[in-house]
Design goal:
Helix Hairpins; 2 domains; 259 residues; mainly alpha
């Protein structure tokens, strides 16, 4: 079972390695870095927003503190020490809130500065990774193109191998058909095959057809000679035929009258 599992993992790893495109992996990594940079920037923006709210609250508290201080002075000027004491008490309470807010403001300001520096560093890393990514992608694309061109020239690529096999099969079939056609021609010339009409011819019939064809040629030759001589082609032909007939007929034997 362990061996089967090892074989399965090896084949799966090989299949994944064949299917993996480094350019897609680099683009995915760059996208993740951009998402992380965006989160850091949002964190910086949130801290800056909180700092700004504290600053607004500090401004309001400082205004109230100044108001209570003015009220205390006026109360003392009017001889109302009790009112002056109350105004100063409220001012002291506000001053404690101001101190707390200032502490928080300092803390937030420090966090904001840290996040800003981290964001800037991360931005620099992302920019450097983007440059490196594009360089690697361009190099990979060029190497892939060179490999494909080399495989095309050498004929070792899968596509070129299929084309070469198709050409070889076509050449083999062509040679087979040419050999078959040559063999059939030889068999027909030797008379080893039957007549396509289905009527077998012996050597006597073949000789008769040859003689008949020769006589037709002779008759045509006589007709052409007669035309050139200005005579009637049909009479020359008939004369030739009657001459041949007369030569072929036997001569009459002499007749003796009875006395």
């Amino acid at each position: 079972m362990k061996r089967m599992g090892l074989i399965f993992r090896a084949k799966a790893n090989k299949a994944l390695d064949r299917a993996e495109d480094p350019r897609e992996t680099l683009d995915y990594s760059y996208q993740k870095q951009l998402e992380l940079l965006q989160k850091v920037r949002r964190g910086v923006a949130d801290v800056a927003t909180s700092r700004k709210r504290l600053e607004l609250q500090l401004t309001e508290l400082q205004k109230k503190s100044t108001t209570y201080e003015d009220q205390g002075r006026k109360a003392l000027a009017l001889g109302r020490e009790d009112l002056a004491r109350e105004a100063l008490s409220r001012r002291a309470a506000l001053q404690q809130q101001v101190t707390d807010l200032e502490t928080q403001h300092t803390t937030l300001q420090g966090e904001e500065e840290k996040l800003t520096v981290a964001s800037q560093r991360l931005q620099a890393k992302v920019d450097a990774f983007r440059t490196k990514k594009e360089t690697i992608k361009a190099t990979y694309t060029a190497a892939q193109a060179q490999t494909q061109i080399g495989e095309a020239f050498s004929g070792i690529s899968e596509e070129m191998g299929d084309v070469g096999m198709a050409i070889q099969r076509a050449e083999d079939k062509t040679e087979q058909l040419r050999a078959r056609a040559g063999a059939l021609d030889e068999l027909l010339a030797s008379g080893a095959l039957d007549d396509p009409s289905g009527l077998a011819k012996d050597d006597i019939q073949a000789e008769l057809e040859r003689l008949s064809g020769g006589s037709d040629v002779e008759l045509e030759l006589q007709r052409m000679k007669a035309e050139l001589a200005g005579g009637a082609p049909q009479q020359a032909i008939e004369g030739g035929q009657s001459g041949q007939t007369a030569q072929n007929q036997p001569q009459d034997t002499p007749r003796f009258d009875k006395q």
